[in-house]
Specification:
single chain, 103 residues, mainly alpha, 77% helix, 0% strand
């Protein structure tokens, strides 16, 4: 139960990080689009473009971690049931039926 609690709290934290990452990335992209329209100097635009690229990579890492946590929570759907245990009673029933048959 403790591992499940840790995993769910980790997922809640990752969800918060993902939301914050998306919000910051959107703000940075808006700032970059203003730079591309010529509202700031070229050096500042290049710096912002590099920051947006780095933030995009970080966001991808967060999303990958989130996907792995979700995958870990979902149980595998193809679980092999294992060998079925043989039962002794059909053999006994067959023996009784053999004795009952008229000769």
């Amino acid at each position: 139960m403790n591992a499940l609690t840790n995993r769910s709290s980790e997922r809640a934290a990752i969800d918060g990080y993902a939301e914050g990452s998306r919000r910051l990335l959107d703000m940075a992209r808006q700032r970059l689009s203003r730079c591309e329209r010529g509202e700031v100097r070229e050096g500042a635009a290049l710096t912002i473009a590099e920051i947006v690229e780095a933030m995009t990579r970080i966001d991808a890492l967060i999303q990958d971690r989130r996907a792995r946590l979700i995958q870990a929570e979902v149980p595998a759907s193809t679980v092999s049931p294992g060998r079925e245990r043989r039962r002794w009673w059909p053999i006994m029933a067959l023996g009784r039926a053999w004795r009952v048959l008229p000769s």
